[in-house]
Amino acid sequence: VGYHGLAVKTVTIAVEPVYEARIENGILRAAGTQLAGLRAQGSPSVFVITTAVVRRRWGRVLKDSLKQAQLRFEILEMEDGERYKTMATVEKLATRLVERGADRRALLVAFGGGVVGDVTGFLASIYMRGVDFVQVPTTFLAQVDAAIGGKTGVDLGVGKNLLGSFHQPRLVLIDPAVLATLPEREYRAGLYEALKCGVIRNPQIFDFMEKEREAILRRDPAALEWLIAECVAVKAAVVAADERESGLRRILNFGHTIGHALEVETSYKKFLHGEAVAWGMVAASMISAGLEKTDPETARRIRSAVLAYAPLPRVTVRSKNVARRLRADKKTVDGAIHFVLPVEIGRVEIVSDVPERAMLQAIDELRTLSQA
Ligand SMILES: NC(=O)c1ccc[n+]([C@@H]2O[C@H](COP(=O)([O-])OP(=O)(O)OC[C@H]3O[C@@H](n4cnc5c(N)ncnc54)[C@H](O)[C@@H]3O)[C@@H](O)[C@H]2O)c1
Ligand SMILES: [Zn+2]
Predict the structure, then answer these.
(1) pLDDT value, residue 75
(2) What is the CA(335)–ligand 2 centre distance, in A?
(3) Which of 253, 265, 301, 338 is catalytic?
(4) How far apart are CA 329 and CA 215, in angstroms?
(5) Phi, psi dihedrals of residue 8, rounded to the nearest 5°
(6) Rounded Cα distance, 63 and 288, in Å
(7) Is 196 a catalytic residue?
């Protein structure tokens, strides 16, 4: 697979109102002009929401670019981490926006990982009954997934993402170069979501990740630009076909059924989200082969591709406990456990009648693979 010069680079997300994701190494330096271009008339204030970590690494580049474009801007920091993806953070930020004179024409910029993106998007959807916002995602996971599609929200003590809204950004600016400073484990965990995009919808992504593993792990800029753009295109197509997640959008949950059960069963302490999804994809592939929805070779290919991006934390939880989580989830979701099962690389099927025995077997196999 050749990727030099083949990048999509601009992906249109065809929802109402339509917006673009622009993917390019170094685009952060042009953020100012990109934002100014959004707002031809008037000179609204820009409010950048970020964390100390991201600001320390990349704040200067963004700041210089906003200055150059002669935009009025303020930078607001929030605490780092999922623990702060809360209503309390939203309230604090909203108060500071008021103090700094943000009115209904304010433009919020989410500059950080998925947590910053979800909080900022949610805040933008309710601040003065809704203001515009732009996503400038800085983690791999946020670049290929969280920043696209307009799902926003915060957590409650009793569960994740329980308060939220759909609020599409006006623009998404993706600079793969900022991934250079991402901790290795965070980076790898994000890659599994890219592999997911390949399995559900685009065999080229999958082939690319099989063949270009070294370039990807080395964070080769051209490889990343291509990979991220292709993943964004997958997410954009799925979201455009099903903005409010009633049907097709569920295919994005490949690997997430068992993945989520593993996360909950280990109290979100053992696996990063992408790592749990990685195990979930392996399990779903084995279930699919077991039910003869796919052939053993496809299941094997998916498993090998996942494990090629290891290390992954081991699965040591008891399969019975994971199955119990799945059943508990089922009550809170919609009465059935949905599995997204691969049929071939690039095509999946949603199945809701997977026998419990098949689930238990798959989880036991994860335990076995963990010991290898
Ligand atoms: N809205 C959606 O559709 C959607 C989709 C998937 C995930 N999510 C949400 O995204 C969140 C997870 O996002 P995440 O994985 O980006 O985690 P995160 O936002 O917590 O970021 C991970 C860590 O990386 C640091 N970081 C960010 N950019 C960096 C950089 N360039 N260099 C160095 N460090 C950097 C952050 O400070 C943080 O400590 C979850 O809350 C999840 O629910 C939302
Ligand atoms: Zn995910």
Answers:
(1) 98
(2) 21
(3) 253
(4) 38
(5) -70, -45
(6) 49
(7) no
Q: What is the mean pLDDT of residues 270-277?
A: 98
Please give the average per-residue pLDDT across 53-70, as a whole number. Answer: 97
C-alpha distances (whole Å) from 40 to each of 36, 44, 66, 168, 350 are 7, 10, 15, 20, 44
CA–centroid distance, residue 205 to ligand 1 (Å): 22
Find the range with the poorest average confidence among 240-244, 262-266, 280-284. 240-244
Peptide bond into 311 cis (omega under 30): yes
User: Which of 149, 120, 144 is closest to 132 using CA atoms?
Assistant: 120
Which ligand 1 atom sits closest to the C-alpha of 160?
A: 43
Q: What is the pTM of this model?
A: 0.96
Q: Name the strand (E) or helix (H) holding 213.
A: helix 213-217
What per-residue confidence (pLDDT) applies to 8?
47
Distance CA 114, CA 112 (A): 7
Q: Is 346 in the pocket of ligand 1 (CB under 6 A)?
A: no
Query: Annotated catalytic, 56?
Result: no
Q: What is the average pLDDT value for the chain, to the nearest integer?
A: 94
φ, ψ of residue 110 to 5 degrees: the values are -85, 110
Quote the CA–CA distance of 180 and 163 in Å, as a whole number.
32
| Nearest-CA residue for atom 34 of ligand 1 | 182
Amino acid at 133: F
pLDDT for 37 = 87
Q: What is the 3-state secondary structure (H, E, C) of 67-89?
A: HHCCCEEEEEECCCCHHHCCHHH
